[in-house]
């Protein structure tokens, strides 16, 4: 797909120990926040290419001072300036943050965002659901139950979403299976997950003290096996993504043989994975993505945000 990722800020209150993207304060080295005008300019530049965007993907840190009205206004501006462009924005963790700021429910936040133009949630922030590990990795972030409940509320309001798992850090295989089973159980209840995205932990710029067996070179086979097990276990979630940004192009191609059926899209500019140590390109063209798929022995199909085939004019 042709998509444009927007990371609006990396200033965040959550303090996750694994996150190389996060900055605590505005004066920290590398901290940034994009204005509405800067975000619109990025989208206008993307739209001026010969290819029409299939979606915009907006995620960022949980900023301590940005009011919720700023985000409502952002979605309204995007909808007004780019009518018909599907907006995928804000993880369940961000929704929980907005609700806390506004002293209201996640249901109310989701309703207001939907009215402003939101059509889908990305799947970030799930990390690993094991409560002891979550306390060690991201104690200030919305917990597993909150993440699942907010996803369920989105589904109840007709907002589809993705789901994720961060793996390859302190977790055991049992923790991975438990995580997948919780996603599968939630999908049986609310049915709104379109795609599962296994996210390999990128250790280059992390603060985590890894166990000795995970300090060496990347175990590509473990990443492929995790995708295969995910495809087999999550039989009620339609799609599995090989996220080329974090897997790298070659491993993402191999992942298509291990159960993945999606490579994401052109992306154009990605900060979270690259600040963590990803060595992949910042973006790809449609022809590059199609070559990757054909070279791996599969047929490329351009899709829309909801995983339907893109219109013929796209």
Question: What does this protein look like?
Answer:
There is one protein chain. This protein is an alpha/beta fold. It has a single domain (3-295), classed as Aldolase class I (TIM Barrel, Alpha-Beta Barrel), CATH 3.20.20.70. The chain has twelve helices and seven strands. It has a seven-stranded parallel sheet. Strand 5, helix 7 and strand 6 form a beta-alpha-beta unit. It starts with a strand and ends in a 19-residue tail after the last helix.
Low-confidence spans:
none
Work out the number of β strands.
7
Number of domains: 1
State the fourth-level CATH superfamily.
Aldolase class I
CATH fold label: TIM Barrel
Strand residue percentage: 5-15%
Backbone CA Rg: 18 Å
Question: How many helices?
Answer: 12
Q: Based on the structure given, which CATH architecture is correct?
A: Alpha-Beta Barrel
Report the order of strands and helices. EHEHEHHEHHEHEHEHHHH
Give the termini distance in whole angstroms: 10 Å
Shape: globular
Can you summarize the main beta sheet? 7 strands, parallel
Helix share bin: 40-55%
| Major sheet: arrangement of strands | 1-2-3-4-5-6-7
- Name of the level-1 CATH class: Alpha Beta
Structural class, judged by helices and strands?
alpha/beta
Fold topology:
Layout: E1 3-7, H1 36-47, E2 55-59, H2 68-81, E3 87-89, H3 92-102, H4 106-116, E4 118-121, H5 131-137, H6 144-156, E5 160-167, H7 173-190, E6 193-200, H8 220-233, E7 239-240, H9 244-247, H10 249-255, H11 272-276, H12 286-295
Helix pairs in contact: 3-4, 3-6, 6-7
